[in-house]
């Protein structure tokens, strides 16, 4: 069981967009696709680019720095099947959007 952290208001990430937030000490990219929210580690594994500032097309985000692409619903890199970027469960509650981060000692 991870730690539930509120990261955004429900109206902060309109449908079809991405945004970057900080939860605890992590940068989180939050995506809104087809009425669902998806959270992924916001730091691109290539060279640290801001995935939350990437362009979103359907369920694929393109890193703004060098164009690596990820399926935001799974974290899967679109070309390298061995590369899967961390994602976090998202829940929407009356007072905002929450993600579940792993406990510090479980990583
Ligand atoms: S930092 Fe994301 S593609 Fe290079």
Automatic annotation (TrEMBL):
<keyword id="KW-0411">Iron-sulfur</keyword>
<dbReference type="Pfam" id="PF00355">
    <property type="entry name" value="Rieske"/>
</dbReference>
<dbReference type="InterPro" id="IPR036922">
    <property type="entry name" value="Rieske_2Fe-2S_sf"/>
</dbReference>
<dbReference type="GO" id="GO:0051213">
    <property type="term" value="F:dioxygenase activity"/>
</dbReference>
<dbReference type="GO" id="GO:0051537">
    <property type="term" value="F:2 iron, 2 sulfur cluster binding"/>
</dbReference>
<protein>
    <submittedName>
        <fullName>3-phenylpropionate/cinnamic acid dioxygenase ferredoxin subunit</fullName>
    </submittedName>
</protein>
<feature type="domain" description="Rieske">
    <location>
        <begin position="4"/>
        <end position="99"/>
    </location>
</feature>
<keyword id="KW-0560">Oxidoreductase</keyword>
<keyword id="KW-0001">2Fe-2S</keyword>
<keyword id="KW-0223">Dioxygenase</keyword>
<keyword id="KW-0408">Iron</keyword>
<dbReference type="InterPro" id="IPR017941">
    <property type="entry name" value="Rieske_2Fe-2S"/>
</dbReference>
<keyword id="KW-0479">Metal-binding</keyword>
<comment type="similarity">
    <text>Belongs to the bacterial ring-hydroxylating dioxygenase ferredoxin component family.</text>
</comment>
<dbReference type="GO" id="GO:0046872">
    <property type="term" value="F:metal ion binding"/>
</dbReference>
